[in-house]
Specification:
Blueprint lengths: L1 E3 L6 E4 L7 E2 L12 E3 L6 E2 L11 E3 L6 E2 L11 E3 L6 E2 L12 E3 L6 E2 L12 E3 L6 E2 L19
Parallel strand pairs: 3-5, 4-6, 5-7, 7-9, 8-10, 10-12, 11-13
Antiparallel strand pairs: 1-2
Length: 155
């Protein structure tokens, strides 16, 4: 159920069904009114470009989420994000051009930092990476002007 003005990008309130398992592709693409969302506990997948170019500032992801697909949060207004340890895959560009993103706590279950994951995150200062990381793909941190140090713990 969504309550919105004339255009779909003006969603102001979203009540999600707890029966679903996937937050689909492009669901809130370019939404300009919704700034905060709590994802229900049965959702396992955040689809491609689900929140891309929206004004989303805060999101709470449950432990049921296992996959964040490509460009899911690209160009949003997120300032920080905590990825639950249940997440095993974060797609390419998932947080690309999140210019207000300052702090990221990554899941302890991911092994790959995908291509352009944080590309253009100009405000990113702090990222906590798990020892499970075995691969960092190209442009993962390109344009992260405030990121001075990345600590990757040993296994």
């Amino acid at each position: 159920y969504a309550a919105y003005n004339k255009n779909n990008n003006d969603i102001v309130q979203l009540l999600l069904d707890h029966k679903g398992i996937e937050f689909g592709n492009n669901v809130l693409l370019k939404s300009t009114k919704l700034t905060e969302i709590i994802i229900p506990s049965k959702i396992t997948v955040i689809g491609k470009s689900a929140f891309q170019e929206s004004f989303l500032q805060k999101i709470t992801l449950p432990e049921s989420v296992t996959t964040i697909e490509d460009n899911s949060f690209k160009e949003t207004k997120l300032e920080e994000i905590e990825i639950p340890d249940s997440v095993t895959l974060i797609g390419a560009g998932a947080f690309q051009k999140c210019k207000l993103l300052k702090k990221v706590l990554l899941s302890k279950s991911i092994t790959v930092i995908d291509e352009s994951l944080f590309n253009g995150c100009e405000s990113l200062e702090e990222i906590t990476m798990p020892p499970s990381i075995t691969q960092i793909n190209k442009n993962a941190f390109n344009g992260c002007k405030k990121l001075i140090n990345i600590d990757i713990p040993y296994h």
